[in-house]
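Translate structure to sequence.
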């Protein structure tokens, strides 16, 4: 399924699970340029942040530096493009329960 959404419409949006519970905010999109010169970007995965205010104000880099300094890793949830429903870009939702995604998260 091909969905076109402007990146600036997604970044910072809160994502909810199918039960309506908050999961985290979209902080990063990972993918590649569709075709050189096309201006289109194909997203493979979304990185959601549950890091709160520090990450929201300073971005992920500041949050990582502070986390390393104080021995705490920022919370990040990696979501495949298949698992995020963008039919309403202002209210992105997971297609499956957060607990299922937690079992698949990469080790940090």
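Result:
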């Amino acid at each position: 399924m091909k969905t076109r959404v402007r990146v600036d419409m997604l970044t910072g949006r809160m994502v909810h699970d199918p039960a309506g519970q908050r999961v985290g905010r979209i902080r990063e999109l990972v993918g590649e340029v569709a075709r050189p010169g096309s201006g289109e970007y194909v997203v493979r995965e979304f990185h959601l942040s549950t890091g709160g205010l520090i990450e929201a104000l300073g971005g992920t880099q500041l949050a990582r530096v502070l986390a390393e300094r104080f021995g705490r890793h920022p919370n990040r949830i990696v979501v495949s493009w298949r698992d995020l429903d963008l039919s309403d870009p202002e209210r992105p939702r997971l297609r499956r329960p957060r607990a299922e995604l937690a079992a698949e998260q990469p080790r940090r």
